[in-house]
Design a protein that fits this description.
453 residues
Length: 453
Amino acid sequence: MVSGSTRLAQRIGRASTPSRLRAFLYGVWVLAGLLFLVGGSAVLEAAHAMKTIGHDTAPSIIAAEEVSSALADLDANAANYLLGNKWHQAQATKDFERQRAVVTGKLVEAAENITYGDAERQPVKVLFDGLGRYLERVSEMRYRKDTGDDRGALVSYMAASDVMHREMLPASDRLDTANYGHMDAEYKSQRVQSEAAEVAAGAVASGLVLALVWAQIFLFSRTRRVFNVPLLAATLLATGFGIYLVRCIDVAREDLRVAKDDCFESIRPLWQVRAIAYDANGDESRWLLDRRNAETLDQAYRDKLRKLASVPRPDESMITARKIPPSYQGLFATELRNITFAGEREATLEMIRAFAAYDRVDGKIRGLEANGHHEEAVQLCIGTGAEESNATFDRFDKALQKVIAINHQVFDQTVAGGESDLAVAEKVLPLVSLIVAALALLGIRMRLREYAA
């Protein structure tokens, strides 16, 4: 009994040369079409992932953290208004209004960039609503302070700060988390899809090249002509483009990895550092302002420091070691363990040292207050001297932003470069598929005409 596959082989063997040439042509067309579909799908998926990470989620996450740090500084300056004299109040008001403008602008940006529905919309609503109520209480605080009602001013401020810490800052965190969840899911999904697409594109391109080579071998065996120029050109083009397409998919996956793992896994923790540090700086002012809750506010400061670093004032040997010791934890350690780019380590060490200097000044403030030197403690907290708290915090903030800038520059370049490469591939892919199909038609039709004649 003859099997189905054997019968098919016998039928192919008995087929005429023109019939087999047409079969080669149709096979090349099908494979060229498959290459277009598989390659196009891979390129579009990679471009979508790049857009999700580079344009949809990353800006929203950064905006959420910018809102958090600006809100924290807003609240610190409100506290400074109550702590200081007229000169301090003028400076605190100026800084407060500057950060209020930042918050308003970033909230508008967040509202305009809502991509994932209620997961983003609800935190933005809470932030807008909370900001209105917060500003009302701060206005009331200023009025009471200016009319000599210090106790009433403190009550108004603590009510405002309660809105900030119970509603607004958690809402900003939820906005960050919502976008990061989508970023991480898209990244993991694309990694898997990209690896499968690379294999599929390589297989289809190899099949196309094999079909073209097979057609030429068949023609040589039947016509004894060494070269069919159109088929040879189609083979070379399919080979070169197949290699290019597989390489393009691989490079796009690597670009996505660099943008997400090397860059953004530093950018996000660093922005979180900024928000937490600004709020800790506010705790310093609130600790001097509200002595009835001094213990709670001192603990709040310590809790934030632990999020930044398990050792706020580390030894040089700890932070400069080739392998960061397991005992050193927190967001500073997260960044030290993800050093990737030129200048990043030096900038990170500068940031950590600057924060340690700030925390040492905080220790002096608490020592002065504990020894009954309240005015000196207030001056050290909100004064503008080079070695006072605000100046040391500003040096830390500038060092922090330098580390962010190093990572952000590479992030932007990687996303832009990846999108540019994918845009070229998206335009070239259909053109190459059509040219290969057309060259195959031209090469085989030349031989079919000889048989027709």
